[in-house]
Amino acid sequence: MSANQEKERPRRRQARGERRIVQLLEAAAAVFTTTGYTAASTNAIAREAGVSPGTLYQFFPNKEAIAIELGERLMREMREAYGEALAPVDPTTPLEEAVGAAVDRFIAFNCEHPVFFALMHGPDIPGRIAEEHDALHATLLSRIEDLLSSLLPDAAPAARVRTSHICLGLYKAGLELVLAHEGAERDAYVQELKHVLTRYLEPMVGARPGHPAPTRAAT
């Protein structure tokens, strides 16, 4: 066997191993979303993935390790999503447009990965995920404050902090309702969420030249 062939074999094994890990994580996402973290089991995840429990244990020692790996990958994606969604905006951007763009980005991520909500807000998530989520939450609040600073340049720092907490709380409450529905009804809940956030912020942002107050579409 040539030296090149010897080098290629570990790469192929590594690639196969990564594909198997992705397969197991996708199966775990389906199980966690359906049953929640507490009720899920490694046997159920292996069954969903179409492999034996022994194969699963070659890659993960237990359910918690699977949840941690899945959670960390999702949080990396979420950080990319909120980095794009919560970039400072031009102060002349209509409030409805700024709110709508941020909400659409986050809703798209959570609808694509419903397990993120199940893992991050379940009652018995592993401690390491809880710690990562707390760090993500703090960073997310900071980014919301940065976004609000472009919309509320004259607001006191303490006021922006309070407003950021309220905006995130409203979003999380609305997200739970959005994820509980599908199709046109889901779209309707997304619009209601945008409306609530816009109406909350509108009195603080105030009227700006060339930007009339948002109007609510008839439903």
TrEMBL record:
Q: One MF term in GO for this entry?
A: transcription cis-regulatory region binding
Q: Which residues cross the membrane?
A: 21-40
UniProt cross-references to PROSITE patterns, sorted A to Z:
HTH_TETR_1, HTH_TETR_2
List the InterPro entries: DNA-bd_HTH_TetR-type_CS (IPR023772), Homeodomain-like_sf (IPR009057), HTH-type_TetR-like_transc_reg (IPR050109), HTH_TetR (IPR001647), TetR_C_22 (IPR041674)
> A Pfam family this protein belongs to?
TetR_C_22
Q: Which domain of life is it from?
A: Bacteria
The entry's DNA-binding region feature spans: 41-60
Q: Keywords on this record? A: DNA-binding, Membrane, Transmembrane, Transmembrane helix
Domain HTH tetR-type: from-to ranges: 18-78
Q: Which PANTHER family match?
A: HTH-TYPE TRANSCRIPTIONAL REGULATOR RUTR, TRANSCRIPTIONAL REGULATORY PROTEIN
> Which named protein is this?
TetR family transcriptional regulator
* Species: Streptomyces caeruleatus
